[in-house]
Amino acid sequence: MLKRAVAVVVLVVLAVVCSVPVWACDPPYVGVNSPGDGATVSGVMNIEVNVTSETEVKGVDVYLDKKLVASLPEAPYVLLLDTTKLAKDAHELYVKARAIDREDGISPIRKFTVSGSAEVAQADSPSATASTEDPNQS
Questions:
Q1: In this structure, which CATH number among 2.60.120.330, 3.40.50.150, 1.10.1040.10, 2.60.40.10 belongs to the domain 25-137?
Q2: Residue 59 pLDDT more than 90?
Q3: Per-residue DSSP letters for 47-71?
């Protein structure tokens, strides 16, 4: 009987803390639509991001080789990356969705190789920012 009472209290606390159903406490889902994992790229590459969330998202941060390269404030989340300014080598990309009242969502790492040789520009918006922040130091 004590175990049942504890379980009920835990569910009530979770519902109150989240102010929404318990399942909605999950962080946003972040998917990178392009480039494909393992892709070989050259020239200007589109980075397309999809975010699904039960709650509002403040924007997304794009990381290339563990360094923040752009912040995209609103959907559609599309970034144009000039790969001619990158080393002809393997690179890793991931995206973090900044949730307002939940844990941030982080995409799986996408690996790609540059065949040509980072200037960064957001498609249709001048508000992308560049930085060398390490996401692991948050």
A1: 2.60.40.10
A2: yes
A3: EEEEEE-SS-EEEEEEEETTEEEEE
How many residues appear in the chain? 138
Distance, first Cα to last Cα, the chain: 42
Distance CA 110, CA 42 (A): 16
Q: Do residues 81 and 120 touch, judged by C-beta distance below 8 A?
A: yes
Q: Give pLDDT tens digits for 93-125.
A: 999 999 988 889 999 999 999 995 445 555 554
CA distances from 41 to 58, 71, 90 (A): 29, 22, 10
- The predicted model scores a pTM of 0.69
- At residue 90, the pLDDT reads 96
Token output for 102: 């939940």
